[in-house]
# Entry
Amino acid sequence: MQEDFEKLNTRLIVISTDAVSSHIEWVKSLETIKYKGREPQKIRFPLVSDKNLEISRKYGMIHSFSSTTKDVRGVFIVDPDEKIEAIFFYSMNVGRNMDEIKRTLIALQTAEKNNVLIPANWNVGQDVMIRVLKHLLMLINY
# Structure
């Protein structure tokens, strides 16, 4: 889905507590494995090794009660102003739902661009809610 995210003007970055050597092996595997009938993928986004856990701790990814750094997978959607807009946490044994991450990104971009509110379970093309200023609501109630 790299191309999908690129079309949404979104940059992907993977940050891992693994060593660079693990990243190299992961990239090699993705470039050779056919998954669900798809061709192997060329990774076009950076992989950052956070072996010292500096970034992971700042983002709350390392739990104080855990003795391992492999227990959490997180996805953070960060806006251009470096504000975290959405967070997804997944157990190590459950894959991420990339369609939901993409849907959420599109919803955030739609809300920002059009100054609207996005209802639960919204998908592209569905109705959105219009923001109304508080003082206008008070006028309507009179």
